[in-house]
Amino acid sequence: MPSMTMIQALRSAMDVMLGRDDDVVIYGQDVGYFGGVFRCTDGLQAKHGRTRVFDAPINEGGIVGSAIGMAAYGLRPVVEVQFADYVYPAYDQIVSEAARLRYRSAGDFTAPITIRMPCGGGIYGGQTHSQSPEALFTHVCGIRTVMPSTPYDAKGLLIASIENNDPVIFLEPKRLYNGPFDGYPDRPVVPWSAHPASEVPEGHYTVPLDKAVVARPGKELTVLTYGTMVYVSEAAAKESGVDAEIIDLRTLWPLDLPTVIASVKKTGRCVVVHEATRTSGFGAELASLVQEHCFYHLETPIERVAGWDTPYPHAQEWAYFAGPARVAAAFRRAMEA
Amino acid sequence: MSKRATEPAVTPAKSAALTAARPSSVATANAPTYDPGPLRLHVPEPTGRPGQQTDFSYLRISAPGEVRRPPLDVSPGDTADMAGALVRVLDDDGHAVGPWAPEVEPETLRRGLRSMMKTRAFDARMLIAQRQKKISFYMQCLGEEAIAIAHALALREGDMCFPTYRQQGLLLSRDDIDMVELMCQLMSNTKDPVKGRQLPVMYSYKRAGFFTISGNLATQFIQAVGWAMASAIKGDTKIASGWIGDGSTAESDFHTALTFAHVYRAPVILNVVNNQWAISTFQAIAGGESSTFAARGVGCGIASLRVDGNDFLAVLAASRWAAERARNNLGPTMIEWITYRAGAHSTSDEPTRYRPAGDWQAFPLGDPIERLKKHLMTLGVWSQEEHEATQKELEAQVLAALKQAEQFGTLHDGHQTPLRSMFEDVYEEMPPHLEDQLRQAERGD
């Protein structure tokens, strides 16, 4: 089985789906001839043709709005927003249109579209290339919000998203594109080839949507997280010596609540970790659900580790990013209380 | 404060007259004199307010038959003159004149007239039903009936319209859409096809080429372009027709649609229904003062026309021209339809507060029903007696349909879709959290 980076795995997913389904089309800024600024669509136009994989004007509202029209026709568009930070002009089309088409027309029209966008920081991208806007989507009824953390999941979840008949917001943690970054910016990058989850089948397979996975089994404490923070939490477990059970949510919403509840009831402690800003972040919903369903099993208050409530800084990136030290500190607080 | 700051050198009416006297492409029509500071903000005004008479000279109306008919493969830039003129076919005597006069069977026109009368009768009865609180809200298309109904004649089965809330004529002109079902939607009753989820008039009819209507304006314009792009990607023969009002052309989705339509040469007709008013804002506030909306199309590389929207034959001819261009890979066409919103914006609006009450009677392009009626009588294929009989017949049909629809309930009599339906269709399959919330709602806790 070949070893793939997350970029190669995503490209393979789109290649497979372009080959299997004539209704799949892929477009976005720079995704055609050039193959995308992160190279995710490299070679796909040459292989599948210019009317299946093509460049779009710099207009996110237009990219998503036209995709909704294409979906209403019967296609299955996969569109790229170059950075999640650029998605806001498309927000009306996502929230008011794609998410509600099925509902408002009672199933007469649907929007099976996948909106891919790189998210998260750690690349010195400053405030316009680093954001994690997932909570703006988990708040919206009618869409799925998905974020993979491994090449294997990235391909399987992307294929499942494309095949899904509802719109999917597919967030790609860009710091994981080339390796499982664990939050130590001063250490050398570990390549995906050194990680078992980089073994990715060449053909078609899916990873189920709406299902979390236990990334690291543990007994003392439950970590609810996703994306880059899965690896940061693993590093924090090592650093703190806490036997943490790390749940990689994979699909943020609809949430795999049974997996969350089972783990928290087992460990009696819960730490929620995400890169996004803290206030009204998705962690707030997770903390609320945990107290609602596991209150009498909790030994200590739920801890939240998140980005500060500031715009994502440039020079002070590593003071902003919730690295292993901050996550480990939260683990210790949860254990000591 | 100087006198200049409080008393504009150019009054709105004078400004409009100046605008009317100049070619539409002159962008400096509102800055007629050299006038160094203090700087003034220009806030456009209509030429008439309540108690005044509107000066409709701002409309820039061409004579019937006067405007040329370019070849189908005209270069978009060569339609600049069309975007400033006004395509008209019917003259004041009811004759079809000029290069745009379409070849059309009298029977088709008789059916068109009947559809317009049916739409008007339907609207009138639904306004009464709203006052009787059988429906919560209504939007009529009084005075604009010709646009949707004649346009529909240029489309084929399988084409897709992305309408606004004022194109009910697209549905009411079809024999396969039952008025009873439309009324069930309006009353949100147990037979409402969209299960009480949408405001009245926000219909969805995929089988009739009618995209689900959104209350968020302009979003459908770029979706129409996307639909057309899909048809082209698949090598299909179907085309899309997108609709927008003058007011919402100010939204970015409008400009987005023009860009995408031009870039991908999408087989789409981009209709701008300029009925002069967006709720209480005059079309000049959307940007219609020194330019036409059709001129936006030309600026974006799209062949564009400006057409008398109250002239059934002009609407038919221009729509056919645009549809044929789309089907022949000649790309998008923008059409600005000039008309007048004769009624209130909706049942929640009171237009006498912001515009002269007699505007519609003074509107120079008249009433589309009266104009087509006159044409048919001139042709000798319609009579006053037939007209009156048809009117009575349609009113009776609408009333009978309403009685039938009311059997399935009205908004406030408790006949609604079951509670479960509120939680369905959010996703294809109901996820666990919605199952939970449904159970909570059923328990009432």
Q: Name the CATH superfamily classification of the largest domain in chain A.
A: Thiamin diphosphate (ThDP)-binding fold, Pyr/PP domains
> Share of helix among residues of chain A?
25-40%
CATH architecture of chain B: 3-Layer(aba) Sandwich
Oligomer: heterodimer
* Order of secondary-structure elements of chain A: HEHEHEHHEHEHEEEHEEHEHEHH
Supply Rg of chain B. Answer: 23 Å
Question: Helix amount of chain B, in percent?
Answer: 25-40%
Total number of strands of chain B: 7
Radius of gyration of chain A: 19 Å
In spatial order, strands of the major sheet of chain B run: 1-2-3-7-6
Mean pLDDT of chain B equals 93
Q: What is the count of helical runs of chain B?
A: 15
Report mean pLDDT of chain A, rounded to a whole number. 97
Unreliable runs of chain A, pLDDT <50, ≥5 residues? Answer: none
| Number of structurally distinct domains of chain A | 2
Considering residues with a beta carbon less than 8 A from a beta carbon on another chain, report the largest interface and each chain's count.
A-B, 42 and 44 residues
Global shape of chain B: globular
User: What is the H-and-E element order of chain B?
Assistant: HHHHEHHHEHEEEHEHEHHHHH
